[in-house]
């Protein structure tokens, strides 16, 4: 019996070595099986898998399926096993480690008017075991806001899905009525609300598209508590319009829990149906490029380049693009500049300080560089002496390996150029 077991093990190793040596060799799949599933439906994974029972396949297709599964919100890790069934072909077994996918969220802090602020949220990232996302948030940060979301990326086919959401959000934002003196700001209540419908289309393993339409209401109402009556003529623009959005994402990433290597690029464009004298935005283009590289067993290099541009804004302070802690420049502050073009480069080194079965502490050091084209200026002014910012700092990440996106992030950024402040940035999920 022992001799037979040794022979089977030897045969299995030979099969695996053959797969590595002849990755393109076709072989027949006798059956496709899954291990480790608790919530995720085997029928759903079978639907999106490229390996099909009774069909020919090769080891590269199996590896592609594994990477596809690892990108799903409900799955923490995936592997595979191959067993020979003689003339019938090969039995393929995908071994799945699931994420805990129902994620409550709570955030508390000090709002821009020094009042207490909070945000509650709850999302299911693997609804019905089919990677359906649904949930919402409610927040009080000076003003109330809420949003509800439902996304089924594979509703119609294994390539085509649908999403719907509704957001009604108000926040206190500074507007720099004199772009050349951003220390002289006026606070407005900015409200953005409306429903959006999105189509998701996965062309292949590396390329996916989104097409969205949103009925949008935007308005700015000045906060007059600290203003003299002589400021009665401060503009308060509002508009109702339709936003048409399209995006293409190219993904070639290898994900192993907190470690990532590879390349990703997101190109997104939004076109607006109307504008007015103050809210002049006709379009917004955004391209985000990310590159990740493993360095040894514990190191991870990560860099991101963001390019954002809209049509030039003339004789209006209501520019749509912003420099902000959470978006592009850690430590600079919440909305510290506005413009019609932004270039931002974020680079960091992540290092695993402690790793247990389910828990990771990761440290990082970073440099963020950004520049902005303010209203009534030329694109060449993006990195002028008074618009360029360099922030450098260190941070910590507390990561649960088996809960989707369970990364508590703390960064402290220090101003290098003299155009920003120093500050702590807290968030959920990696910065990028």
Secondary structure layout:
Blueprint: H1 2-21, E1 27-35, H2 42-48, E2 56-57, H3 59-71, E3 75-84, E4 90-98, E5 102-110, E6 116-127, E7 132-141, E8 143-152, E9 160-175, E10 186-202, E11 207-222, E12 238-256, E13 259-272, E14 283-295, E15 299-310, E16 321-323, E17 337-339, E18 341-355, E19 359-373, E20 389-400, E21 407-415, E22 423-428
Parallel strand pairs: 1-4
Antiparallel strand pairs: 1-2, 3-4, 5-6, 6-7, 7-8, 8-9, 9-10, 10-11, 11-12, 12-13, 13-14, 14-15, 15-18, 16-17, 18-19, 19-20, 20-21, 21-22
Summarize this, please?
The chain has 432 residues and is mainly beta.
Report on the architecture of this protein.
The chain is mainly β. Helix content is 9%, strand content 56%. The strands form three sheets. It has a 16-stranded antiparallel beta sheet, with helices on one face. The model is unreliable at 1-22 (pLDDT under 50).
User: How are the strands of the biggest sheet laid out side by side?
Assistant: 5-6-7-8-9-10-11-12-13-14-15-18-19-20-21-22
* Main sheet makeup: 16 strands, antiparallel
Overall mean pLDDT score?
90
Count of discrete alpha- or pi-helical segments spanning 4 or more residues = 3
Please bin the fraction of helical residues.
under 10%
Order of helices and strands: HEHEHEEEEEEEEEEEEEEEEEEEE
The proportion of residues in beta strands is over 45%
Distance between the termini: 53 Å
Shape: globular
For this structure, the quaternary state is: single chain
Whole-number radius of gyration?
Answer: 25 Å
Q: What is the count of β-strands?
A: 22
Low-confidence stretches: 1-22
